[in-house]
Amino acid sequence: MAPKAAPKAVSKAEAKPKAKAPKKKEEGEEEKPKMAAPDKQAFDEKLGKIQDEIEKLQKKQKSFGDKIAERSGGKEEFYAKKAELRAQLDELNAKVNELHAKKDEIDKAMSGKREEGRQMRDQVKNMKQSIGFTSEQDIDKRIA
Fold it and tell me: What predicted TM-score, i.e. pTM, was given to this entire model?
């Protein structure tokens, strides 16, 4: 019975080399080159150039901002003058409105007087008609 145990040991030894086989590369796949270590000096040079460009643009922006501020400085003077002129305009409008009110009051008084004169003329006309005499001779005849 001893021979039976020996073949089992042999089979285990044969199974181990078959477990891992080296991978073969496919036909379309190429070897990728390994990435080179970054060049710190070249990076710093590029970064410096970019930083210089940023500083130039910031200076340019600041000069434009200064020009805008310079030109908008007159805006404050303009608004102050505008407010002053608006105050004068409001004052003059108030005077005009006051004069219009006086004119309307005078027009009412004049129309009242005209109406009063019209009524007086109508009264005189009615009195003349009620008397019935048209001339002095008619009055003399009536008296005599």
Answer: 0.41
